[in-house]
Design brief:
Helix content is about 50%, strand content about 5%. With about 350 residues, the protein is α/β, with parallel strands linked by helices. Among the domains are: about 120 residues, Potassium Channel Kv1.1, Chain A (2-Layer Sandwich), CATH 3.30.710; about 90 residues, no CATH class. Helix 8 packs across helix 10. Bound molecules: zinc ion. Zinc ion binds next to helix 13. InterPro entries: BTB/POZ_dom, SKP1/BTB/POZ_sf. It holds the Pfam family BTB.
Length: about 350
């Protein structure tokens, strides 16, 4: 096999040559051993007096990295040997780089890169509804630390992660135990695959490179996908079931009732069009169809909707069989060193 040198990772005074697929990297044993206990162990085996020709490359020991992709190894080694290549969040980066750095740093136990990659990956999958709402409704006012660091600009920040990336993110999250990203990743995937034809496409072509899911993830996803279609119903019920309570201070119950019924018609139309984001089908805002109810009803309706959305959000992980937010946030905090 012809081996191709990777120029960015070919140090003339390096003392070890790593090989992934048909690419070779000439780097430094001492630095790798200082960063990774796996490399430390690997290099501490006593070297034979004489190496077989296939075990060396231009006088350096040749170390095959079995099962690793050349692209991922290149990202990982660049993160180690070039301090500008993979800066910490909120600096911008790319999903490809995060994926390579995270998978390899997990395997070779380079904790600081693993943690840095997890922070970047997690920025695309908030575990708080409030942040998701800010991205949906106030995207122009977001601070750098509220953004996803790896979505290309222009970055609408909401529901814009492409299907192939979601598949890869979910598989990666399972592999490195970043389970807290799964509920929202599955939710986004559901919103891309609401149309039965789209769903069938991914289910039928299971060898498709884009959709490398385990059996377990398909089962989890489909389980939650069924529930996804019903999320809109309790939200609409907040408005349809609202009853003016005489104690709440409404002075124009008939007027409020008629405004509410008209608004409900509009929300139903929206629900038809925007089922792709059921948690954000409508909101009760000063410029929305409910603006003309009295101040008291407005406030009560807003509260009822907020409570209902919070409940739906809290149930989201369980719908996909991934436990509770409480536990997921705990493991996230530990893994991200927060
Ligand atoms: Zn009222």
């Amino acid at each position: 096999m012809d081996l191709e040198r990777v120029p960015e990772l070919w140090f003339p005074d390096g003392n070890v040559v790593l090989q992934a697929e048909d690419h070779v990297f000439k780097v430094f044993q001492g630095i790798l051993a200082a960063r990774s206990p796996i490399f430390k162990d690997m290099f501490s085996f006593p070297q034979p007096q004489e190496r077989a020709p296939e075990d060396e490359f231009e006088g350096c020991p040749l170390v095959p990295m079995m099962g690793d992709s050349a692209h991922e190894v290149a990202c990982f080694l660049q993160a180690i040997f070039d301090s500008e290549f993979f800066p910490a969040y909120p600096a911008r980066t790319e999903f490809d780089i995060i994926e390579g750095c995270l998978r390899m740093s997990h395997k070779y136990q380079v904790d600081y890169i693993r943690q840095r990659a997890l922070v970047h990956l997690s920025s695309g999958f908030p575990t708080e509804l409030a942040l998701l709402d800010r991205r949906r409704y106030n995207s122009s006012e977001l601070a750098a630390v509220e953004r996803t660091s790896w979505l290309p600009p222009p970055n609408p920040e909401y529901g814009s992660i492409p299907v192939p990336v979601l598949f890869r993110a979910i598989s990666l999250a399972r592999e490195v135990e970043a389970l807290w990203i799964l509920p929202l990743a599955f939710y986004h995937l559901s919103s891309h695959l609401t149309h039965p034809e789209r769903l069938a496409h991914y289910l039928t072509f299971r060898d498709n490179e884009e959709a490398t899911f385990s059996e377990r993830d398909w089962v989890a996803f489909l389980h939650g996908h069924g529930a996804f279609s019903h999320i809109a119903i309790p939200l609409l019920s907040c408005v349809s079931n609202y009853r003016v309570d005489p104690r709440c201070g409404c002075r124009a119950p008939h007027h409020c009732e008629s405004v509410r019924l008209k608004a409900l018609g509009k929300f139903h139309d929206l629900a038809d069009k925007r089922l792709a984001q059921p948690l954000h089908i409508f909101r009760i805002a000063a410029d929305g169809p409910l603006k003309k109810v009295c101040a008291s009803c407005f406030e009560h309706l807003q509260l009822a909707l907020a409570e209902c959305r919070e409940q739906l959000w809290n149930k989201l992980p369980r719908k996909y069989g991934i436990g509770k937010w409480e536990d997921l946030r705990k493991i996230k905090k530990e893994a991200l060193g927060l």
